[in-house]
Amino acid sequence: MITIGKKTSLLFIAPVAIWAAQAVAGDTYPTSPKSVVEAYVSADATGDAMQGKTWANVQKFTTWPASYSWDGCLVVKTHDIGAPSEAGGKTQVTVTYDVIGEFDGVRMALAPRKDQLTLELAQQGGQWKIGGEPAKPRLSPQAALPLLKDALEQAKAMGDDVVKAQIEESIAALK
Hints:
This protein has about 180 residues and is of the alpha+beta class. Helices cover about 35% and strands about 30% of the residues. It has a domain at about 30-140: Roll (Nuclear Transport Factor 2, Chain: A), CATH 3.10.450.540. The strands form two sheets. Strands 3, 4, 5, 6, 7 and 8 form a six-stranded mixed sheet that branches. The longest helix is centred in the last third of the chain and has 18 residues, at about 140-160. The N and C termini lie far apart (about 55 Å).
């Protein structure tokens, strides 16, 4: 505690108490546009954007709606996050992905290619946020496998041998 005369300085104690509470809670929101994009890409790769219960892990880095749904996602092998650039008063960061294919919710169409996603960020409430239209999720193979395995179980239950074979091929390609 710092004392000035006989009075304790609340101006010192309050910020330290807030900082300590955030540190204990693990609240470490990224402080630069590139680190926000890194955190977003990491959360997106785990499949958090694909489920309502984990959507907030992705949405907190964006100005996107509190809930959103997609018809599918890209499955990606690797990504490279470019350097931030300024354009029109906003910051842009481009992420280049090595895409394996696209998962439509039932099966995966293998279509290897490069894909670029340019994210536009702006300050909002003292934090960098990704704006614009919500981007289609980009999952790692490890995050896509459980989705494919669930689809496989559904195909087996329905007795759909054609879809079952397609899903099994997709699973084999990701392993």
